[in-house]
């Protein structure tokens, strides 16, 4: 089964989508298999990260922005603003696809793991994910 899922972000940061992906898995009625999540954008990415302590999310967001700052004078790809090229670099070094095993009809995530869409652009965006659930 393949389904698309739209996620609205209101700017840079990690947006948890675990429940939305789990609902798709549940509706697919697959007991054991694999869930693949793919983001159809070049300025946002996906990650699996701790979802218990918000400080982990905050620290990741702050760290990547220190490593890849907006408005670097060496960037030439700036047509959409000072966060244009930094967002592409962030997406390139993170992930655009995740594969999560399905066990007993649920995502086989660890106790503290959540699935996140990582928005790298400053302004709000509507992002599209393609979710494949199979055996």
In a nutshell, what does this entry contain?
The protein is α+β, with helices and mostly antiparallel strands and 135 residues long.
Write the layout of secondary structure elements.
Layout: E1 2-9, E2 13-16, H1 18-28, E3 33-39, E4 44-50, H2 54-67, H3 84-93, E5 97-103, E6 106-107, E7 113-119, E8 125-134
Antiparallel strand pairs: 1-8, 2-7, 3-5, 3-8, 4-7, 5-6
Structure notes:
The chain has 135 residues and is α+β, with helices and mostly antiparallel strands. It has a single domain, classed as Sandwich (Jelly Rolls). Helices cover 26% and strands 39% of the residues. The chain contains 3 helices and 8 strands; from the N terminus they run ββαββααββββ. It has helices at residues 18-28, 54-67, 84-93, and strands at 2-9, 13-16, 33-39, 44-50, 97-103, 106-107, 113-119, 125-134. The mean pLDDT is 97.
CATH topology name, in short, is: Jelly Rolls
Total strand count, please? 8
Level-2 CATH architecture: Sandwich
What is the residue-averaged pLDDT? 97
Fourth CATH level, the homologous superfamily: YjbQ-like
Q: What is the count of structural domains? A: 1
Broad structural category: alpha+beta
Largest sheet strand order: 1-8-3-5-6
Number of helices: 3
* Shape annotation: elongated
Amino- and carboxy-terminal Cα gap: 10 Å
Query: How would you characterize the largest beta sheet?
Result: 5 strands, antiparallel
Could you estimate the helical fraction of the residues in percent?
25-40%
Order of helices and strands: EEHEEHHEEEE
What is the CATH C-level name?
Mainly Beta
How much of the sequence lies in strands comes to 35-45%
Low-confidence regions: none
Q: How big is the Rg?
A: 16 Å
């Amino acid at each position: 089964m393949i389904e698309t899922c739209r996620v609205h972000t209101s700017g840079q940061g990690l947006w948890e989508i675990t429940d939305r992906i789990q609902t798709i898995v549940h509706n697919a009625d697959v007991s054991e298999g694999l869930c693949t999540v793919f983001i159809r954008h070049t300025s946002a990415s996906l990650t699996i990260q701790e979802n218990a302590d918000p400080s982990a999310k905050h620290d990741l967001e702050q760290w990547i922005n220190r490593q890849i700052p907006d408005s670097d004078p060496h960037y030439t790809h700036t047509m959409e603003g000072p966060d244009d090229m930094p967002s592409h670099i962030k997406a390139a070094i993170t992930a655009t696809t995740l594969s999560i095993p399905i066990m007993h009809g649920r995502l086989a995530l660890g106790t503290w793991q959540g699935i996140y869409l990582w928005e790298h652009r400053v302004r709000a965006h509507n992002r599209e994910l393609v979710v494949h659930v199979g055996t």
